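Board notes (copied after class):
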Amino acid sequence: MKPFLIVTDLDSTLVHPEAFLSLAKFNNFFKKHRDNYGSKLVYATGRSLKLYQDLESEVDLLPPDRLITSVGSEIYTADKQMDSNWATHLSEDWDVEIVSQIACEYKELELQPESEQGDFKVSFLLKPEYKAILADLKQELNAKNIKAQVIYSSDKDVDVLPERSGKGKALSYVREALGLPCDRTVACGDSGNDITLFAENTFGIIVGNARPELIAWYEANKRDNLYLSNRRYAAGILDGLRHFGWMDV
């Protein structure tokens, strides 16, 4: 059995208050696979490093080989050192002060707490009935030569990121750093901010409790190496690994 790379979202994908048993089963499986074959584990979360550390203190998480936080705008090594090369890569055609200034002019956008802001991410809350303004925001940023992407997920979260950022591009960067090919990599997620994870031509597992925006994307982008489980949370990840024949230890 060759090593593989699992890149998984945390909240409502691997981790959930109802999923302690399935998380324990996943941890047991992956620990054996890591020990036997050298497989790698990466968490790709919308949480900041601080909020990830809060979760880490509450839930039994295996130590990751890399940590992608803040919707792909930050990457950390196994010992939680920020990857400065990734930060340099994101800085081109990006100015967080201009982004904040323009976005804050939209009264419908409610700024998230300071802990959820970063040098390469500006985050807001937005009611679904106002999401049409996001196209205007992106157009206005483009007019200022800011190359940004605007991600809306879970019917409330807005993340404005550099065009070079996002979970998917961070996945590709980390995958290459860890030396594993696309056909030995599987991404796992449940919401709209995970869509870019599934656009990198790796294997993909969408858990059964996925948000409507991700289900809609899946229906429009079905492919052989993308699997929609009927199991929820970590049980869905294990179901997907079984589906792809990657459960041997």
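Comment from the instructor: The first strand starts at residue 5 and ends at 8. The CA atoms of residues 48 and 197 lie 18 Å apart.
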